[in-house]
Amino acid sequence: AVSDSPTVMFVVYAAITVFPVFWVIKNESENAHLSIIVYCGLQFYYFAYNGMRQGAAMSLALVAVYYLNLNKSWRFLIWVLVASLLHRSALVVLLCWVIKKTKIRVDISWLPYIAAISVLGALFGKSLVMLVLRFFSRYAGYIGTTFADEGNWLHPFMFLSILAFLLWITPINDERVAFDLTLLGVGVVLYFISTSFQLMNRVTYYFIMPLIVLLPNAIETMSRNNRTVSKIIAYVAISVYHLLLIIRKCQGIIPYRFFWQ
Description:
Mean pLDDT: 84
Shape: globular
Low-confidence stretches: none
Oligomer: single chain
């Protein structure tokens, strides 16, 4: 081993986890401040220091999606493979390439279908996931554990509301915006499946992380007055959500100890 120090391990994981996200924000976001608020406020950051290997893999997968949006398929594939070395779940991001090539794109007319599929996912998702897991012995051990319990309903409805808001306000005349909205739609469906099989929310993160850039950029396209109101709503909503996370002690690491404690 290079070092047996836990501090060195955390520093390395922190670099792998945070720098790729900030790099994508630097290159894509029209409002870096709000992007960082979304990244921290919607618990991507906190999850990364609980499920550490997957958190780092998610950040690298975000870079992969960035390159896929630029039609650089080989770079996308390389980053996905590197991410999968940290956590095999990152291979699910290959589905993004399929979505990109089939040119499936979500718009406002898709909302009723997404809602219907989400309801079906909530009702029958556990049976479907358990059936799939039986073919993968490595993950079949999750059956019968707390990971197979029911998930919460807050996240699915929250992200469905965000998707509806973005589809309503966003002029979809940019292929990259349309693609990110489609990924968010997939993430919403997976979140509803997670209400019957909690482990699925781990897969969901890969599809909703582009929201870090998507939401701020959508708000920045609005007229000045609407932009101001939307920013206030976003800050208040994220703050309330963050408070709920603290009250529920989500991820088991909130709040941190302050220097005077």
